[in-house]
């Protein structure tokens, strides 16, 4: 069964850090780039970051640049998002999303999301 | 950054009716990199249309996409109860990836 499963969300104080994980199974994780996308409560989708298939290329949204770091471990089929200096506006459900290749580059594989709440 | 503007913000229709959702880009988007997603409450988005007009396996043929350049349309030919949701367009032809703000399709 093709799936992505996020974990690591929770409640954190402003200025603190959190690390999200996204575990892939049922497909060849290392073939394609993979993304983080977030959705603030009641709001739309916001792209956060992308990492290439081999981890050598990374891009970030301006809103998180310098604070968030995306990485991947293809040997463990896992994607990470290290979030530092968290702000209230980072409160959102965080999804990992990837193309299976069949409909490249559209995102046809999504995780269920993990909620991050930044609050004192 | 390419800004995608979706209209209308909310669309109120009845089952069996035809829905037409619009997505307008601030700059030309390669048709290969325009997608539509459906999202229901508490769920992750689901890919409906890729390449502006292609349907993934398993997506009903009542969903169709069209358009090019800066103007794209998602059409649902005959609404079924399960189609009432929020719809987002997305472009991936230019970095960064961007999404429209969404159109909420509600039951009239």
Give a short summary of the structure.
The complex is a heterodimer of chains A (120) and B (108). By secondary structure, chain A is mainly beta.
Describe this structure in words.
The complex is a heterodimer of chains A (120) and B (108). With 120 residues, chain A is mostly beta strands. In chain A, 0% of the residues lie in helices and 48% in strands. Chain A has no helices and eleven strands. Chain A has strands at residues 3-7, 10-12, 18-25, 34-39, 45-51, 58-60, 68-73, 78-83, 92-98, 109-110, 114-118. The mean pLDDT of chain A is 96. At the A-B interface, strand 5 of A face strand 4 and strand 8 of B.
Binned strand content of chain B:
over 45%
Oligomer: heterodimer
Largest interface: A-B, 21 and 24 residues
Distance between the termini of chain B: 35 Å
Shape of chain A: globular
Secondary-structure content class of chain B: mainly beta
DSSP summary: helix tally of chain B: 0
The low-confidence parts of chain A are: none
- Point out poorly predicted stretches of chain B: none
Cα distance spanning the termini of chain A: 39 Å
> In what range is the share of β-strand residues of chain A?
over 45%
Shape of chain B: globular
Q: What is the radius of gyration of chain A?
A: 14 Å
Indicate the mean pLDDT of chain A. 96
What is the helix tally of chain A? 0
Main beta sheet of chain A, described?
Answer: 7 strands, mixed
Topology, please?
The complex is a heterodimer of chains A (120) and B (108).
Chain A (H helix, E strand, L loop, with lengths): L2 E5 L2 E3 L5 E8 L8 E6 L5 E7 L6 E3 L7 E6 L4 E6 L8 E7 L10 E2 L3 E5 L2
Parallel strand pairs in A: 2-11
Antiparallel strand pairs in A: 1-3, 3-8, 4-5, 4-9, 5-6, 7-8, 9-10, 9-11
Chain B lengths: L3 E4 L2 E4 L5 E11 L4 E6 L6 E4 L13 E14 L9 E6 L6 E2 L3 E5 L1
Parallel strand pairs in B: 2-9
Antiparallel strand pairs in B: 1-3, 3-6, 4-5, 4-7, 7-8, 7-9
Please give a handful of descriptors for the protein shown:
heterodimer; A: 120 residues; mainly beta; 4-stranded antiparallel beta sheet; B: 108 residues; 6-stranded mixed beta sheet; 52% strand; globular
């Amino acid at each position: 069964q093709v799936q992505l499963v996020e974990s690591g969300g929770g409640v954190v104080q402003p200025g603190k850090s959190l690390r999200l994980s996204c575990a892939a199974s049922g497909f060849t994780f290392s073939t394609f780039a993979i993304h983080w996308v977030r959705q603030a409560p009641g709001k739309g989708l916001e792209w956060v970051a992308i990492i290439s298939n081999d981890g050598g290329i990374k891009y970030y949204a301006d809103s998180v640049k310098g604070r968030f770091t995306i990485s991947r471990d293809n040997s463990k089929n896992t994607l990470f998002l290290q979030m530092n200096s968290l702000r209230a506006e980072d409160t959102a459900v965080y999804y990992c999303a990837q193309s299976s290749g069949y409909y490249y580059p559209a995102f046809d594989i999504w995780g269920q999301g993990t909620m991050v709440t930044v609050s004192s | 950054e390419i800004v995608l503007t979706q209209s209308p913000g909310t669309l109120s229709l009845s089952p069996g009716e035809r829905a037409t959702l619009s997505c307008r880009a601030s700059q030309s988007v390669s048709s290969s990199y325009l997608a539509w997603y459906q999202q229901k409450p508490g769920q992750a988005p689901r890919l409906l249309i890729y390449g502006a007009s292609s349907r993934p396996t398993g997506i009903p043929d009542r969903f169709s996409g069209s358009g090019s350049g800066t103007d794209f349309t998602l059409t649902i030919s005959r609404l079924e109860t399960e189609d009432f949701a929020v719809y987002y367009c997305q472009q991936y032809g230019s970095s960064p990836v961007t999404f429209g703000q969404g159109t909420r399709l509600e039951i009239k």
